[in-house]
């Protein structure tokens, strides 16, 4: 059995929960960045160049990140005939995009493929009438619960029709050069990269109201508010990238050093705080 999972946190939890599984992990967040023709070399280069620019604060050693991504792709392509693969995914743009990408990489392979939907499995096993969880991505699940999902939760063995459908959905998705995908109405939607920008203004206004005056506050505090309240999984590096774009557009002003999220403070300009 080979497990394929998306995200560093999810991979860490699965590794602890299943005790050294045979695993292929993608550390990227597939809800951000272009996925245009990512199944081809030109598409890989196109994405990696964008990620280099946007996630410089996330990946301290870009060459290692680049090597890791290519190695994960090679491992998926190298899965031999006769294997059984389990793909872990949740109901978000990140993991659903990753699912479709991997399905295309596995195109025409004579292997069995099962999918575990951690969102529905988590709800079935752990929700109660009094306590209901809002799960944004698999990385939020602790190792012990992932193990229980694996042992008790439903997994779906994909039919040839299922596989062909996901492969075609990938081909359609990979025609877009948009840099942001969101999960809306139970589907992945390609949107402009500024789609979430209104939340920066909304939560900045809230922080100013809490302070009672138009003071500078840490940029990380605003990004934390958005991560905590917005029901999309994009990662903090993308949100900081968009914050810097808004600073450049004059929506926010800052003091400090923009090289690192910890080194600068921000506030809404007066014209945007009304």
From TrEMBL:
Record domain DUF1835: where: 2-118
Official protein name in the record: DUF1835 domain-containing protein
Organism from which the protein derives: Jeotgalibacillus malaysiensis
Every DUF3658 domain range: 158-264
Short name of any one Pfam family annotated for the protein: DUF3658
């Amino acid at each position: 059995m080979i497990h394929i999972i998306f995200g560093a946190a999810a991979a860490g939890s699965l590794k602890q929960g299943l005790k050294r599984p045979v695993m292929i992990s993608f550390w990227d967040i597939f809800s951000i960045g272009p996925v245009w023709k990512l199944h081809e070399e030109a598409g890989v280069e196109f994405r990696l160049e964008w990620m280099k620019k946007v996630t410089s604060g996330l990946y301290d050693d870009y060459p290692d990140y680049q090597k890791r991504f290519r190695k994960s792709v090679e491992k998926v392509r190298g899965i031999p005939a006769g294997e059984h693969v389990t793909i872990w995914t949740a109901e978000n743009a990140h993991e659903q995009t990753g699912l479709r990408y991997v399905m295309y990489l596995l195109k025409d392979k004579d292997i069995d493929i099962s999918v575990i939907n951690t969102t529905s499995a988590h709800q079935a096993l752990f929700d109660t009438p009094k306590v209901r969880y809002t799960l944004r991505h698999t990385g939020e699940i602790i190792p012990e619960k992932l193990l229980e999902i694996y042992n008790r939760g439903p997994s779906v063995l994909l039919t040839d029709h299922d596989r062909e459908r996901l492969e075609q959905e990938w081909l359609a998705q990979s025609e877009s050069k948009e840099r942001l995908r969101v999960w809306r109405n139970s589907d992945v939607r390609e949107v402009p990269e500024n789609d979430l920008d209104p939340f920066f203004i909304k939560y900045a206004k809230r922080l100013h109201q809490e302070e009672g005056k138009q003071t500078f506050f840490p940029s990380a505090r605003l990004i934390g508010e958005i991560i905590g309240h917005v029901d999309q999984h994009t990662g903090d590096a993308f949100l900081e990238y968009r914050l810097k774009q808004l600073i450049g557009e004059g929506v926010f002003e800052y003091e400090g050093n923009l090289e690192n999220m910890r080194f600068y403070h921000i506030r809404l300009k007066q014209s945007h705080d009304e």
